[in-house]
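Holo prediction — FE2/S2 (inorganic) cluster.
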Amino acid sequence: MSDTLHAAPPAGEAVPQTDPAMRAMERRTVAHLAAGGTTDGGLEPLSIAPGEYTDPVRFEAEKRELFGKVALLAGFSCEVAEPGDVMLFDHVGPAILIVRNRQGVLNAFLNMCTHRASRLVSECSRRKLISCPFHAWSFDLDGKLVAMPGEDAFEGIDRATRNLIRVPVGEWGGMVFVKAHAGEETIDVEAWLGEMAPHMLRFNLAGASLVKHSRVETDCSWKYALDTYGEGYHFGALHPTTFGVTTVSNVILYDHFDPHYRVHFTNVGYRDLVGAPESEWPVAPYGGSHLTFPNAIVYGAPIGDGGSMIGMYRVYPGAEPGKSFTIMSVYRAADSSPDTPDEVFEAAHDFIEEVVTTEDYSVSKEGQRNLSHAPEGFRIVYGKNEIALQNTHKKIAEIIGMPLE
Ligand code: FES
Ligand SMILES: [Fe+2]
C-alpha cells in the first residue's frame, strides 16, 4: 500500500482522494482482516461432474451459444482512437475487423471481402480505405464498396449488396464489445454491464494506452484457466514466492453483478490499516478484478510512481475442450504517473505472464488431464470461498441450456 501514498500537494491544489467505491472495498477488506481473516463467500459448496471441463457437447454449445451470441470485450477504445484505425478481433468465431469512421463512430465487419471472401486486413494500422489483397476491391470506413478494378466484368450485379457485412458492435466507457456473428445491432454496453458499469467507468479506460500484449496457449479448458482469476484461495499454496508474498490468501471481496462479477484480493499492506483511522489510510486508485462475462478479466493495480496499470486477460476456447488460449494485455492507466516508464508496465506484464503460465496454468493443465481420466462418480467441489466460480459456471450452464450435472 505504501506505493500508493502521495506526497502532500502544493497549497491550492486539490487533495487526492480515494475513490468512494474503492474506500468501501477497503473498509470491507479491513473488516475481514480485523475479524481474523474472514472472506466473502456463498452459502454452501457446489459439486459438479468433470464433464463441465471435458465434455465435447458442452464445449460446442459454449462456442455456439456463448461465444457466438454474447457481447464480448474486444479491446479498449485507445486501440482504435483515430478515424481509419483498425482493430482485429480474431479469437473466436469469424474474423472481425473494427474500424473507426471519419465521424469517429466504430463500425465492425466480417474481415471478409464480398467478392470471393478473402481476408481483408491482417494488421492493425491506420488506413483511408479497406482494400482487398486479392483483386483490390476497396471499401470505405463505413464498409461501402467504392472501387472494383475491371468493373465491367461485374455488370448486372447489385453493388449495394456487396458492401462489407456488418457485425454487432458497441463502444462505451472506453471499451469496445462485439458479437461474433454477422448482424446490424448496436450493442448497448452500459446495459450489458448493468450494475458493474459505473465501476468500469472508474478505470477511465478511454484514457488508457496499450503497452504490451501476448498470447499464451494452455492445455486446459478455457473455464479451468478462467477459474484461476476468480478466487484468492490459492495464493499461499500455489504462489508462495510470487503473488502469495504480496497478497493475503483467502480474504476475498466478491460482488455479483449478474452475469459479471468483481473480486478484490487483499494486499498485505491492508494489515497495517486494521485499527488505524481512515484519515490515515493512503490514497489508493480504484482496483479489483472485474469479469466481463464470459471470459474477460479487467483489473487495476497501483504501479510505479503513482496511479495504476490496467490488466486485461481474456481466455478463449481452443481446438478442443482441453485446450484454450489467453490474450494478456497490460495498459498504462489514465491516472499513471508520466514518470513511470513503459518498461515498468512491460515488466509487470512479463512477471504476471510468467507466474500465470508457470504456476496457475501449470496446475490447470495437470488438473485438466486428471479430469479427463477421473473415475466414475468423481465430482469437483467449489468451496463457499469460490463463489465467483460457482456463479460463473451456473451462468454458463444456463446460457447454453445444459444444467450442471
Ligand atoms: S476476393 Fe477480394 S477482391 Fe477478390
Ligand atoms: Fe493464481
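READOUT: The CA atoms of residues 62 and 371 lie 19 Å apart.
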